[in-house]
Amino acid sequence: MRKIYAFVVLISFLLFNIFGNGFVAKGNNIFDPSNYVLFDGTNFEDGSTWGFTPGGGASATVVTDVYGNKYLEAKGSGSGTRSIVKTFSTSTTKDKVLILFDWQPMDVSTAANNSEVLISDENNNPLFRLVKKGGTNGAIGYSVGTTGLDLSKVTYINTIDTSQKWLTVRILFDFVAETVSFEIFNKDDPSKYFSAYGLDLKNIVYLNKIKKISIIGNRASGNTLNFTTNVDNVYIYTSTTDAPIQGSKNIVEIVSSYTYNYDFPLGTSINDIISFFPTALNVKLENNVIVNNVPVSWSCYNYNPGQEGNYLFVGNLIIDGITGVKNDYNITAQINVRLLNLSFVPPQIPGYEIVYATDFGDTITVVPKYWGFTTQNATLNINTYDIKGNSTPKLEFTQVNQTGGRVATKTFGETIKGDAILVKMNWYPGLLNDKGSNPYENGGELRLIDSSGNVFWKLNNTRNSPLQLILGNSVVFNTYFTEPEKWYDIEINCDVLNKVISTKITDTETSTVIEFTYSSDNVAFDGTLKSISLVGIRTSGNNITWTTYLDNVWIYNKPIPPNRIINVDKLPYKTIYVNTAQDISQIGLPTRVTVTLANGTKKEVEIAKWEILSGQWSADKPGIYTFKGVLKEDSSVDNTYGKYAICYVYNRLQPSKAVRQMEWLNRGLIALKAENGIFINWRLLADEYKKDVKFNIYRNGQKLNTAPLSVTNYLDVNGNPGDEYKVETLVNGIKIEETKVKALDKDYISIPLQKPEDGVNEAGETYTYEANDCSVGDLDGDGEYEIIVKWLPSNAIDSSQTGLTGPTIFDAYKLDGTLLWRINMGLNLTSGAHYNQFLVYDFDGDGKSEFVVKTADGTTVYGATYGRVDYNKVISVIGDPAKNGAYRYGPNGPFPGKVWGGPEYISIFDGETGAVLDSIEYRYSIEKTGVASWGDTWFNRSDRFLAAVAYLNGTTPSIVFGRGYYARTTFVAYDFVNGKLQERWHFDTQEIGGKGEGMGNHNLSVADVDNDGCDEIIAGSLTLDHDGKILYVMDGEMGRELGSHGDALHVGAFFPDREGIQVFGVHEVPAVASLELHDGATGETLQAYFAYKDTGRGVCANIASEPGYEFWGAGDFYDVNKGAGIYNVYGKIISNDCRAAGLPMNFALYWDGDLMQELLDDVSIFKYDETRDKTDIIRTFEDVKSINGTKANPCLQADILGDWREEVIYPTFDNTELRIYSTTIPTQYRIYTLMHDPVYRLGIAWQNVAYNQPPHTSFYLGEDIRDVVLSNNLPVKDIFYPNKPRKADEPEEKLFYKSSSESKVDLYFENNKVKITIENDEEIVGGKISVRRLSTLNGIQLPSGLDTTNNYMEIIKSENIRNMLMKVEFTFSPNNLNGCDINSLKLYRYNSTTAKWEFVNGQVVDTMKNIISFVDTEGGIYGVFGTKPATSSGVVTTIILNPQSQTTSSTTGTSSKGQEKTQQGITQVTQGETQQPKPQIQTSEKNIVTAKIDTNTVTNVQLNSQVKISVPPQAVEGNNPVIKVETLGSYTEKVKVGTTVIEPINISIENGKIQKSIVVEVKIAPETIKNDKVVIGFIFDSMSKKWVPVLTKKNINTVQLELNKAGTVQVVAAKLSEIYSDIKENNWAYNIFNQAITKGIITGYADLTLKPEKQITYYEAAVILDRAFNLEKSSNSNLSEVPQWAKDAIMKMVSNEIFDETNASNGIVSRIEAVKFMVKILEKKGLQIEPEDVKFKDINNAEYTEIVSKAYKLGIVKGYPDGSFKPDKPVTRSEFVAMLIRAIENINK
Length: 1789
Prior knowledge:
The chain is mainly beta and about 1800 residues long. Helices cover about 5% and strands about 40% of the residues. The strands form 22 sheets. Strands 104-107-108-113-110-111-112-109-106-105 form a ten-stranded antiparallel sheet. Strands 1, 3, 4, 6, 11, 12, 13 and 15 form an eight-stranded antiparallel sheet that branches. It comes from Caldicellulosiruptor kronotskyensis (strain DSM 18902 / VKM B-2412 / 2002).
């Protein structure tokens, strides 16, 4: 092996002497390790990383090369410096230290970046480094005493390879001579060699104790970092002599240059003065060493801001903590300050008073610094150079190569107000950087903002565009000033009194003036001025570089009385519940409001009246209503401006009681090694929480608890690994189950992984795999979670990058490590954090979770053999495997690795086997949308994906996939029904004018925010309602702060006393709120902080004792008013500085047993101590790593085992093992598993998406409600388990959803022989009914006078349908009536309140079918009672209808029990009413019905309860025609497909002939059309001896057949593909034809084909349009050439001017004609259509442009990806029908 170090040394020694590289004989060689003692070292062969610890965004992995040799691979990527550090347990202490290692520096992305290997001392001072420059084959160099991006002191080496070869390095530190020497050479060619001796350490500050070896990637601003550095054979040797004692050196001189004299105006505060002084200085020591950045503290002992004169400020150097530096000579910095009675006075303007003014230092130094302008990640400066003729001091604002637009803001201390506010200033807009190949130019703006936060005025400067004036959000004026590199005089006069804003812009070079005047009534402006901002606006892919200047800002006002009302304070939303306020007076609107007066004081003013501004108040209609409060006249205040209050009233639904499908889970029992014993904990289910459920615990058969346990955890201090623990579950004190587990010898569960094999991409680059995100689901239905692991290749990319990635791989594992299947996603899907979002959930309610992911051609599923992946066992393949990788750019393409086309699917896989269950074409594939529609042309914005599970009907889960959020934003929702994926809805900002664009996050959340029981999608600053429509956007309106794209999102219940869900997020755009908390239902902003920077991190968690959650984020670095602090949701500031408190900004979790949350970051758990305002690490997980780079999150955080606390899952460094860590800390709190909380469970489903975020619950937890928790009074949702093991005596449950359009829903309880029907016109979200048959009753007395049949039934309805009417059919056994007479049976319900049995009114007893039917609202326990045979008294009248002859007869008997009526064995029992036989309406002979046809009216013929035939007037021509209908039960020629709906019937007409269609109406049961079936009628063609389809239209619970001739008819239900031979389920038009046939628009051809690809003729188009829209015929035309079957339809089209005469032919319809026909019809139907502003390159005709624009607006048709429309392209039948269905949808809206 190449590991044999002595061999390497020997060969190197010989070669170096041969090549004359200055080597000396062994024994004098300073690099010979035999001259030293081994201090520490490794060759990595044990697989350990030897303590190399990666920071965020980095990784350290031991890998094996092709020779079997192991080495350390250190990698880093992202948008910051990345490091992997080895820290020695003790520092070196000897005078010589020799460090040997092998080094393979790989290429570093971009030339501006670099990587390095750094040796540093125990004070973290850099001693020596080797550097690899960025770019391909970047140079290698070295330096002493430096680190980071600055390479100015690096010396480069040109005698060794830079092409990623292994190099051998030897470094010797001589701390006596204070030098470092080193040599480096190619490992495979030692002739390539370099050495340097005696490099001086005296010129740096250092300690002679080496503590660290670091591998670092240094990232330059605006660049993305990717680097890999490999090291091997790292050994450290030392001498045996102690290092000399180092003495500190005195400072002898300050070498930094700084300003020594300042002039300030009288009154300047000392803090404002010191803000101009340097905060750190460079100094020289007595040994001539320069020490940089020594902190300085400034003071002046006699400063008096009110006294003119000179003041000496002294800067004391702070040297505490600086190694080897002292200041015995008391060297200080000094600055002389002169206070002068000078100030800048702007020109006077008649009628105005000056409020604020600055010339930025023309007269005297401007204070505060930069006149109070502040910025982040950009620079401010007072520029005194000549800028286009202006050489006076001016404000300069610069941002260079920034990845986001930066903001500089001046906020005025006192709000500016007045009858008029006049702002005068000079602005130099400045040239922005060119967009290059990017689609859009960058911009910059000058903005004015009022005290309400409204940007009411802005002047936009976009490169290559004229300056643009914008008032508010929508009023835009274009100027003709196109030159940004000149000065403009700006004058803005806000006439508050007359509500006018005037703007005057003057070009100072040409004196050209442009003026604009506009009413402020239409602008969001509160009449004040609070701040001025300069804002950079960056566009996609285009880092912004911009310098702009501002000068001579003068602000005036027209003074107003001090008691003038200038603003009415914002009122919080008023929330009430529906139907609690029948009129406005009952809402509880405030009677007084607080106003702000001109003098700055506050005053309460009465409200005279409230007026509604938006529609009318509806007590029963939920939503937001806007009310205007007119202020009552008050002589103490002046309301000249007519200010009024606005109050938004949210009429809110009560919290939903809907029941949801949820997975049943077993106990999840685990026993882990704790610090002092074994910790056992287990799961409590949600439906057990409110019950008397307790537990006993046993160790090795010995009971450990004296009394049953209510909590679900136990610490056994005497337990040992290997002990067997048993937990018994007791319900009401009775044991119902037991669970066992063996105690582990560690505090985690280990799951072995099967790491995928390395791969090689098309460019010949090798990649490896790392375990990444995980999710969980019960894949096999046994109540235990399985784990899905995503494997990312090492060359995975961010969407903003390019690269030929290896395929993403997914594995499914049981908790014992058994692999179930592996999915290779293939090469048509890029790998990276923003791709391959996946969902694991039970979507079809079978009790087993499915796996859903976006797929493409080549996605392949492999099975397993004996728990190991088996590549010979191919389970499923998506699409065409031959096209794997065919749709992505290769290494020489314009965007290597990017997928440019090809089909994209949403696929669902069986979770247990991996078999694909269904795939559906993805609506927003790049092939369909094109890349540019997403906002760029290089696949960055298009390749941003999201996914979630949501209960969109409130009952069962749906699938949601999103694409895009930087600009165009889309979502598609799918249901998985009867084995098929069905699109539920889609959302596309492009279809609604761009509303919601750019508001999405790198993540999303799901919750029912509006209490309708159905989930909403919280996509960041955009919230979609459950129907796919926008619920609200954070648009700056209606009390909502303006939002933007963001990186972090937290959604949950954050208040103990505020019902509902709240949303906390941070935002990327500097001009909007950096940290913002809002109400989840309305978007009402509750708190917001502005740091004016890209804020990438933020957390909301309950970490302090105050009631309510806290939140914090990466806002301002210092100012608590700008987001630097820790904030309670009620507004209290917990800490001024979250960074100083050490709070991580990552995950929050429940770990230690209290009701507060801990914080998880990287591999450590933190606890905030509010008493010290500090954060402590309470647990670090060893030998594992976090994932996703700087995000540093676990593979998964979730409550997947044990009690309600959360587990965290990490991979080991070598990716061969997953570890599930669970707490071993006892807790006193009994809480059900968080996985049964809907918000939390769905949070686990989406946690793996893009930028992972922690889950939250739908209910509040905190120590402030500990009494609530201890008393088991947390809210808990009613849930339904599809997979719960059901015992014989347990109820049978059904969960259902019913839309308002469904007339009823039937529920069949097969095991209990009960059918329940709910029939109404209401929507029912999450109804649950349970039924249980009882043979005996315990503790319930039977009714007197009746005998029991032992037939009992219990019906329990969920709370949300408790009072809803239900029809029940209860089947009883005639052989089990306990001797009761079957004709005496009656049903009673037990009233538990009165403890009495009550007769159920309206019941029907069918003794023929043994069914008792009744209608009831109550539910509860029902019993069937009767009497045993005995002499009866009273009178019974029984009407019997003979089922054969249907004739009637009557009998009389006696009874004492009411009246009874029997028909066909049916007894309807009523109380207190006499039933008379109804007259027979229609009789028939056998199975034949005949009726005389009245040709002047509709003739209805009722064949039976299912079939009715209607003959319209004049439909039959003849002399006394008669219709005869006959049931043909034995007919042999039946339709051979599908399920028979009705047996064949024959319809014949005697004495007449059918002239126009007669209608056959057939009732259908809902189950008839399950599984995507259609109902179609057929008529038998006696000539061809074939069944021919007839036009069939489906209504809610019937179908109507249109017959144009008599004959034999049959109706069947079947799948479309079973009936028509040329349409398959995977055809894109399958669902379209399904809809068209169901709507009665098409029938298909007699040969049972649909001919979807046949070009459609005018005749066919006319007939189909006529059926769809039923136009009236206004005149006759001469259409002799038109065939009879199309003549009527063509005549209608021509007479209504839809067609012209030329269309009355058998010609082919073109695309432009098709859309023209449909748009004309829609307009004739009264639809008002505003054209969409859309352009196609081949549409130049004005008429065509209008028609296409309207059709595009309605979604009837889109263009092609190349920007064309192809107007003359012939239309196929499928295309025409698809357009038609979309057109019909517009009418239905």
